[in-house]
Amino acid sequence: MTATKRIELALGPCFFNWSVDQFLDFYARIADEAEIDRVYLGEVICGKRMPFTDTVWPQAIERLEKSGKTVVLSTLAQPVNKRERTILKQQANYDMPIEINDMSLLPSREARPFTAGPFLNVYNEASLAFLSKRGAIAWCPPVELPLDSIQQIAALVPEVEIELFAFGRLPLALSSRCYHARAHGLSKDSCQFICERDPDGMDVATLDGKRFLAANGIQTLSDACHVAALTADHLHTSGIQRLRLSPHMSDMVAVSNAFREFLDGALDAAELDAQLERLALPGPLCNAYLKGEAGWKKTSLPA
To answer: Which family does the record claim for this protein (predicted)?
Structure first.
């Protein structure tokens, strides 16, 4: 009888403009205390932030690898100039696991293994099979893809590991413009890195004051905090090997430990939700994209 493989937990790349000290403290604690198997790190959202955070990654990688974590370098999702495209080509040749978030990086990787990130427009088995032939060994589907579709794709492309976005504000879109700067009367070119004021994203409300979305530089995220409370049995049935938790200012060690207890059967879905809601999340819970409904809603998921 073959033992069922344990569902792993991954920590996704931080989308927000945190300081160097915040990053180093954060990853040191993840290394020492978190129930995390794999950590993605690197600047994904805004190339203007890269000169400030580039010094963080070697130290963080060393600390995480010493603690036994698998570390993957996440790459920029929307390169906009020659400098950023040059950096991506250099990163493609790094001798370490990488996550590709923009198709322009694919030729430079030259069929070596990579993770296909959630910013790639991969919505069917043909697209994933195309990437698999060019080196994709894992895939984090776009967050709006329903669970039924993910299950079908996983069954048709079984050679690629599936990693489901399971916690955090949903990464919905990227823009060539910076709404965050504009909201403060600044242009993108002279933004003064105003996004650093909102370490979980800037809340955006409708004209009548209802919570709506969040802005993070050029990125639009959900207001609500997505939680995929799917049991290990359900994940195995769906062809999913790993859950991805997206970093926020909430206690991510407590978040990861709660998910580990849930996957191991020590908590049920209601208890997981209750534990997470006590952690000062950036928004209310949601999960309805998994059922093909409006993503801001909270609905019951099959056990």
So the answer is: Belongs to the peptidase U32 family. UbiV subfamily.
Measured CA to CA, the distance from residue 121 to residue 112 in angstroms comes to 20
Spatial separation of the C-alpha atoms in residues 278 and 274, rounded to whole Å: 7
Instruction: Report the binding-site residues.
Output: 46, 178, 191, 195
- Asked if pLDDT for residue 260 goes beyond 60, the answer is yes
Residue of 171 and 110 predicted with greater confidence: 171
CA distance 129 to 177: 33
One-letter-per-residue 3-state SS of 129-180: HHHHHCCEEEECCCCCCCHHHHHHHHHHCCCCEEEEEEEEEEEEEECCCCHH
- 114 and 74 Cβ atoms separated by less than 8 Å: no
> Which tens digit of pLDDT belongs to each residue from 208-242?
999 999 999 999 999 999 999 999 999 999 999 99
286: its two tokens: 């949601």
The predicted-structure confidence for 116-168, as pLDDT tens digits, reads as follows 999 999 999 999 999 999 999 999 999 999 999 999 999 999 999 999 999 99
CA quadruple 244, 248, 250, 251: dihedral sign? positive
Which residues are annotated binding-site positions for [4Fe-4S] cluster? 46, 178, 191, 195
Token pair, residue 209, equals 């004051």
What's the whole-model pTM score?
0.96
- Residue owning tokens 């905090």: 225
Which residue from 125, 93, 123, 96 is spatially nearest to 110, judged by alpha carbons? 93
DSSP string, 216-239: ETTEEEEEEEEE----HHHHHHTT
- In sequence order, the 6+-apart residues with CB closer than 8 A to the CB of 191 are 48, 178, 180, 181, 217
